[in-house]
Design goal:
The chain is of the alpha+beta class and 169 residues long. Helices cover 22% and strands 29% of the residues. Strands 2-3-4-5-6-1-7 form a seven-stranded mixed β-sheet, with helices on both faces. The model has no long low-confidence stretch (mean pLDDT 87).
């Protein structure tokens, strides 16, 4: 059976391994409650542009996602304006997965209103992931991300940020 989508898992096993992108003034990441009315419309704009499969989620899938206590969100801001969305999910064994990371079309390459925004926003997302305790208050021992070939927008060099590939097996 042919494989239609390549999935690459990248991980960081210590927060000290983070190689931060150069700081960009006026760019921040703000934790946003999952039940916030801004999450789904923001997601849908980012997902439609980036080609995420989650753009087709049903109302029930969204209800479950937004009420899941292990799932957290943050909004990427540029000069106080919403520029993108990050979703984090606490996993067993003190892990946090960055499950969604994307920018609104006007901030995403090639438009890239702010050069370097993708890398700096991902640096902020990684820093926040390391600070997210699980349901028992334990900080993560691993932060990871799955990159699907069809969802590679915005383009990111995860290795440059300090992530390493997870080898199958």
């Amino acid at each position: 059976m042919p494989v239609s989508h390549l999935v690459t898992c990248m991980e960081m096993t210590d927060s000290e391994l983070l190689n931060p992108a150069p700081r960009i003034a006026d760019v921040s990441l703000t934790p946003t409650p999952g039940r916030s009315w801004v999450i789904k419309p923001l997601h849908d704009r980012v997902a439609a542009h980036a080609g995420w499969r989650s753009v087709n989620w049903s109302a029930e899938q969204w209800r479950r996602r937004l009420t899941n206590p292990r799932v957290r969100y943050a909004t990427i801001l540029v000069a106080g304006q919403t520029a993108g969305l990050v979703e984090f999910e606490s996993q067993p064994h003190a892990e946090v997965e960055i499950t969604m990371f994307g920018l609104l079309p006007e901030y995403a390459p090639p438009a890239a209103a702010v050069p370097g925004l993708v890398d700096y926003a991902f640096t902020l997302a990684t820093k926040l992931a390391w600070a997210l305790p699980d349901g028992l208050g334990k900080l993560p021992a691993r932060v990871w991300v799955s990159v699907r070939g069809e969802e590679a927008e915005p383009p990111l060099d995860y290795s440059a940020r300090g992530y390493t590939p997870v080898l199958p097996g």
